[in-house]
Amino acid sequence: MAVLDISLYPDQVLTTPGSDVETVDEDTRRFIDDLTETMYTLNGVGLAANQVNDLRRICVIDTRPGDQPGDRSGLLQLVNPRIVHRQGHVRWEEGCLSFPDLFESVDRAAKVRVEALDREGKPITVEGEELLAVALQHEIDHLDGVVFVDRMSRLKRKMALKRYYRTLESIKSGARPVHSEGKGVL
Ligand SMILES: [Zn+2]
How far apart are the CA of 7 and the centre of ligand 1, in A? Predict the structure, then answer.
């Protein structure tokens, strides 16, 4: 398994919609395993394929990583996921591995139902609320080429991007590492 490089905004792959996976095969599963390994290594609670420069509609989520290393009982690996039902409203502070150090509140549905295929290609339904609902919406947005700043008001987005581009500059100059430790980012 490999830890993959994270694409940082404004990399074009992040604003390009992914394509459905036609056949879930060994190659797909290898990619899912790499995506999963990358998410856990970077302390993410979710990761979408676009974020590692791949345009297949695949994402992984674990909103309750266990206390024990290697506990993956909360892991979701979703192929071709789609939101089929939304309910209620919640405002949640989100971060994103493709936007280092940017944390902003975003309006989301409080509960969602998602249909997808699992790693064997079998249809599954996932229902989530709170952080899981937020993570599902954030990752499926990624697969649609939508990033969380697109969900902010115009003014808030402008301020957030201004701060983010300063961070990006210090990353590019080598003044700071790309990812800080220990944050539950999506
Ligand atoms: Zn993200």
Answer: 10
Ligand 1 centroid–CA 23 distance in Å is 25
- 7-18 residue pLDDT tens: 999 999 999 999
Measure the CA–CA gap between 32 and 61, rounded to whole angstroms.
11
Domain-embedded: residue 177: no
Distance between Cα 95 and ligand 1 center (Å): 7
Full domain range(s) for residue 53:
12-172
Q: Is the pTM value of this prediction over 0.85?
A: yes
Give 56-91 pLDDT, tens digit per residue. 999 999 998 666 777 888 999 999 999 999 999 999
Percent of the chain with pLDDT over 70: 96
In 3D, which of 159, 158, 175 has the Cα closest to residue 167?
Answer: 175
Query: Which of 108, 110, 122, 109 shows the shortest CA–CA distance to 80?
Result: 122
CATH number for the domain spanning 61: value is: 3.90.45.10
From residue 64, how far is each of 27, 67, 72, 130, 182 by CA, in Å?
A: 27, 9, 9, 12, 14
* CA–CA separation, 132 and 88 (whole Å): 14
In the chain, how many domains are there? 1
